[in-house]
Amino acid sequence: HADPLPVHPTFFAGRDSVVIAAPAKLNLFLEILRKRPDGYHDLESLMVAVGLFDTLEMRAAPNGAIALTCEPATLSSGTDNLVHKAATALRTRANRPDLGASIHLTKRIPTQAGLGGGSSDAAAALVGLNQIWKLALTREELVAIAAFIGSDVAFFLSLPAAWCTGRGDVTTPESAALGSGTDSGPCFVLVFPPVGISTVEVYKRLAVPNEPVSGDRVRAAYRARDAVALGRAMFNRLEEPAFVIEPIVDRIRKRLSQLNAAGAMMSGSGSTVFAPCRDAREAQSVAAAFTDSRPADEPESRVLVVHGFTP
Ligand code: C5P
């Protein structure tokens, strides 16, 4: 018996075309356990999807070509784009080099932001193309391809929340979910500093801890949907090296933290900083206070309020 396929919001599904939304993620907890012989790091992370989405419009094409277009057009649509990698890896795995597709990616999730945007796009491509190419691969088969594309891709096949181990690619779904747009559950203020951070650079400067922090407290707070307890328990080992690379991100985090009862933290390898709030009203007022109190010598950041994501 195969696992159910991941639930991405689908706006349109035709016979040979589909439009799928790819959510951003936040790391509410991220601890590094050890450096591995293959150069990656074993980690533990609580990842949750939030209501900020790229969209992928996919249509099967008869000519065996994979054609990607992106919006904004400044984004790479070449073979280095993870959507391209996903499409190629999927048809290779299915032994079907004849399959083609035209894919249009609308990008809303900032890049180099610690939000997993590229990984989420890749996962959505796997799900969508599996459908329109009628390959009927199981979730487990898609997960195996996902791990080959990037460490975070598997998470986006475990929506809306998961406890992630290994190099991030071993996921245990969290049954509890934060609020969606339809209720008054926890929300997040997202701050996008005007600088991106390279994941590779962050890992280069990382000091692996002798005694890793436990994620038990943050998991309990998450399950209780308690934004303030979540804020007290949240932890990210990658903050320290990221703040060395871009001190402005720490400055922004400190200022946001002072404005919010539950504090603030960086997501993943940065540069996005987020503040968990009890509800949308509180999040809107924290966001407004953050924008209004910006010192003249701090560069302007884009600010957004998002809900947790429930399929
Ligand atoms: O897997 P992905 O290609 O997204 O990882 C990007 C880089 O981040 C890797 O090349 C590696 O340097 C670092 N990384 C790591 N340990 C992880 C995930 C990523 O060292 N668990």
From TrEMBL:
Molecular-function GO terms, alphabetical: 4-(cytidine 5'-diphospho)-2-C-methyl-D-erythritol kinase activity
UniProtKB keywords: ATP-binding, Isoprene biosynthesis, Kinase, Nucleotide-binding, Transferase
PANTHER family referenced in this protein's UniProt entry, alphabetically: 4-DIPHOSPHOCYTIDYL-2-C-METHYL-D-ERYTHRITOL KINASE, CHLOROPLASTIC
Keyword field contains Nucleotide-binding: yes
Domain GHMP kinase N-terminal: 81-157
Name used for this protein in its record: 4-diphosphocytidyl-2-C-methyl-D-erythritol kinase
InterPro entries named among the record's database cross-references: GHMP_kinase_C_dom (IPR013750), GHMP_kinase_C_sf (IPR036554), GHMP_kinase_N_dom (IPR006204), IspE (IPR004424), Ribosomal_Su5_D2-typ_SF (IPR020568), Ribsml_uS5_D2-typ_fold_subgr (IPR014721)
Pfam families: GHMP_kinases_C, GHMP_kinases_N
Organism: Gemmata palustris
Signal peptide: none
EC number(s) reported in the record: 2.7.1.148
UniProt catalytic activity: 4-CDP-2-C-methyl-D-erythritol + ATP = 4-CDP-2-C-methyl-D-erythritol 2-phosphate + ADP + H(+)
Record family assignment: Belongs to the GHMP kinase family. IspE subfamily.
Job description of the protein: Catalyzes the phosphorylation of the position 2 hydroxy group of 4-diphosphocytidyl-2C-methyl-D-erythritol.
Pathway in which this enzyme or protein is active: Isoprenoid biosynthesis; isopentenyl diphosphate biosynthesis via DXP pathway; isopentenyl diphosphate from 1-deoxy-D-xylulose 5-phosphate: step 3/6
Sites where the protein binds ATP: P110, T111, Q112, A113, G114, L115, G116, G117, G118, S119, S120
Gene3D superfamilies: 3.30.230.10, GHMP kinase, C-terminal domain
Residue positions of the active site: K25, D152
Location of the GHMP kinase C-terminal domain: 222-291
Keyword ATP-binding listed: yes
Source lineage: Bacteria, Pseudomonadati, Planctomycetota, Planctomycetia, Gemmatales
